[in-house]
Amino acid sequence: MTEERTGYRRSAKSPRGEARRRELLGKVADELGTNGLVDFSLRRAARAAGTTHKVLLYHFDGPEDLLTQAVLQLRERRIDRAMTAAGEGDGRSLADRVRSMWPTLIGTESWVLDQAIGLAMYDAGRYADLARSASRQYLPALLSLCPQDWDEQRRSEVAELILATLRGFLIEWRTSGDAPGIEAGFAALVRALDREEQA
Predict the structure, then answer these.
(1) pTM (two decimals)
(2) d(C-alpha 139, C-alpha 79), whole Å
(3) Which of 27, 44, 120, 146 has its CA 20 to 30 A from that of 69?
(4) Element (H or E) spanning 176, and its range?
(5) Using CA atoms, how far apart are residues 80 and 61, in angstroms rounded to an integer?
(6) What is the DSSP letter of 88?
(7) Closest listed residue to residue 134, CA positions, set 97, 101, 103, 105
């Protein structure tokens, strides 16, 4: 049984198959991080992974699944870097932690993730999960930044506020590049978070 047999997928769930899938996904995610989503195809992904499109179909449920999984991986990388930046230094306020995430959010691979949200808005029927999955990925990280003595509802409300505000800043950054406007918005967010933390 060869890896290219698309009709027989049982071995893809084995530890070896899962390791191979992770390896392929990492290579495809790296390629997307460099070249973006425009003109994405199985053949392009296969070239990046050093394999064939049939092998990718053996491990993934089509091009949309592969694209979604690669975007999820890129987003996880971004979240890990942002949380590392937010966690540096003890005794920092919630506002300071959120502000420290910004350079990561606009850094490497950010343009690809912004493209993914745009793609989901352009063709929601086909790519809706690219947008839905973003909230599922970001919210746990933002919840973990909130003071642990807050009740669940308060932490949830503040995390949603931070997520929505940062998304707005990212859209502004990507579409207008208005750094002074974003800085003014951050100042307002910092004041709001400081008041909330002191309440």
Answers:
(1) 0.81
(2) 10
(3) 146
(4) none
(5) 27
(6) S
(7) 105
